[in-house]
């Protein structure tokens, strides 16, 4: 049986030991529990263990769970999956954060669908740091132009960068993300977030300055 509470405690311990090795304070890194494909009951168990940030990748599945858990008003929902343009309204309505923006069209549609009375949507731009053909994300060279194109979107707050480095990526890939982040945040002072690190590469990510790690299977068990 999976004991979610114990798994979260274990992951928190890994985060704090990685922070210690990197000479960073443990509270600089936020644990985002990736609950995609997992039922609302499991999210509730994590919630009862104190977890408040959850990441989802599939819009309809996520909206169903968010609706079921709507009385937990202190949950922060993050969208981290591929974005189809026709799903931007649902995403803008139900999420506080979107990590996976890699084109201006999607950013502008999210901006248009985010109501003025709501707080702006927090966004990260996804960077294809390993240069994988088939992977989502903007290339590092196209990143400045994309930022410039969406900088005047009033209903978006540009919080930073997100990456999914390839399997067994070297520390250098994570460091490259850190360098991009450090450079760009001089120009965009709202940037304070570097979203990288998953169950298998959390340590490298934290070494390279990650401020959000996105952990799924180490908390909720393997996905089918
Ligand atoms: C599924 C997913 C994760 C979590 O991956 P694990 O290996 O289960 O920790 C993190 N980030 C993104 C973008 C994902 O889609």
From TrEMBL:
Among its keywords, does the record have Cell cycle? no
Which cofactors does the annotated protein need, by name? pyridoxal 5'-phosphate
**What's one GO MF term for it?**
pyridoxal phosphate binding
- UniProt KW keywords: Pyridoxal phosphate
Keyword tRNA processing appears in the UniProt entry: no
- InterPro entries cross-referenced by the UniProt entry: Ala_racemase_N (IPR001608), PLP-binding_barrel (IPR029066), PyrdxlP_homeostasis (IPR011078)
**PTM N6-(pyridoxal phosphate)lysine: at which residues?**
36
Per UniProt, residues of the Alanine racemase N-terminal domain are 19-223
PROSITE patterns registered for this protein in UniProt: UPF0001 (PS01211)
An example of a Pfam family matching this protein is Ala_racemase_N
PANTHER family, alphabetized: PROLINE SYNTHETASE CO-TRANSCRIBED BACTERIAL HOMOLOG PROTEIN (PTHR10146), PYRIDOXAL PHOSPHATE HOMEOSTASIS PROTEIN (PTHR10146:SF14)
Question: Which NCBIfam families does this chain map to?
Answer: YggS family pyridoxal phosphate-dependent enzyme
Report the protein's function: Pyridoxal 5'-phosphate (PLP)-binding protein, which is involved in PLP homeostasis.
Q: Which family does it belong to?
A: Belongs to the pyridoxal phosphate-binding protein YggS/PROSC family.
Q: What is this protein called?
A: Pyridoxal phosphate homeostasis protein
> Which organism's genome codes for this protein?
Colwellia chukchiensis
């Amino acid at each position: 049986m999976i004991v979610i509470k114990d798994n979260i405690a274990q992951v928190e311990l890994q985060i704090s030991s990685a922070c210690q090795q990197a000479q960073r304070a443990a509270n600089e890194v936020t644990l985002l529990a990736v609950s995609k494909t997992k039922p609302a009951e499991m999210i509730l168990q994590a919630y009862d263990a104190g977890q408040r940030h959850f990441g989802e990748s599939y819009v309809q599945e996520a909206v169903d769970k968010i609706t079921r858990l709507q009385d937990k008003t202190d949950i922060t929902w993050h969208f981290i999956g591929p974005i189809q343009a026709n799903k931007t309204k649902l995403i803008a309505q139900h999420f506080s954060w979107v990590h996976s923006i890699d084109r201006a069209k999607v950013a502008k549609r999210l901006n248009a669908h985010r109501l003025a009375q709501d707080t702006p949507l927090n966004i990260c731009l996804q960077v294809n740091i390993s240069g994988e053909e088939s992977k989502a994300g903007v290339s590092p060279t196209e990143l400045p132009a994309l930022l410039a194109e969406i900088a005047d979107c009033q209903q978006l707050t540009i919080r930073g960068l997100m990456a999914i480095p390839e399997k067994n990526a070297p520390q250098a890939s994570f460091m490259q993300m850190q360098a991009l982040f450090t450079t760009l945040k001089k120009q965009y002072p709202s940037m304070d977030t570097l979203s990288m690190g998953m169950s298998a590469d959390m340590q490298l990510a934290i070494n390279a300055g990650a401020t959000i790690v996105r952990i799924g299977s180490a908390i909720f068990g393997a996905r089918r």
